[in-house]
Amino acid sequence: MKTIKQLVMSATLVTVALGLGGCAGMSAQDKNTAIGAGAGAVVGGVLTGGSAVGTVGGAAVGGVIGNQVKPPK
To answer: What stretches pass through the bilayer (predicted)?
Structure first.
């Protein structure tokens, strides 16, 4: 059982590291879009009780809002 936990933890750490590395070349607007889409998906899923339509709709709306946010200068 301990080896399964170690395998899961290692896989999780590798996934997080690769995910963070993928954001290195993104512009501020791209990052805001991705953050908005992620947050919108979570909120949409929660508000609709885990409905796929609510999650996808929330991600779309969140992505649009995140795309329109202007970073401070």
So the answer is: none
Angle of CA points 39, 44, 49, to nearest 5°: 130
Q: Which two tokens stand for residue 7?
A: 């395998």
Whether the CB-CB separation of 60 and 33 falls below 8 Å is answered with no
DSSP per-residue codes, 8-47: HHHHHHHHHHHHHHTTTT--HHHHHHHHHHHHHHHHHHHH
The predicted-structure confidence for 13-68, as pLDDT tens digits, reads as follows: 877 777 667 777 888 888 888 888 888 888 988 898 888 888 889 989 999 999 99
